[in-house]
Model the fold of this input.
Amino acid sequence: MIERWIEEIKVQCPPSELGMIVVHNGIVRATNRKGEPVAGMELSYDRVELEKLLTHFRAREGIVAVKAWINEGVLPVGADIMKVCLAGRFRTDVLPALEELVGLIKTKIVREKEITNVGR
Done:
């Protein structure tokens, strides 16, 4: 998926506006933020709100492409949660936008529930 996205972006975006492509691949950790073990997570997301958010980021100055995929269902440790790809002119445009986009997806779009029955 990521390789395909990168190739599509290189073909579809104007070379004068494309200087950097960054990727985020979030995965299910074996521990939560408190360091407690987890067996996985149950994840869902709002597709309509995700598309609105991606459209908003695509319109940003210096950004030429934004793609995202979010996994859904019961996810074991090590499974992909989401993949996000963002491209633009300069590092100063792209890196802050990626960090903000991933943060908004995590806080506004995705609904997560830890599965904590480790070892039971």
User: Anything to note?
Assistant: The two ends are 35 Å apart (CA to CA). Helices lie at 2-12, 47-58, 91-109. The chain has a mean pLDDT of 95.
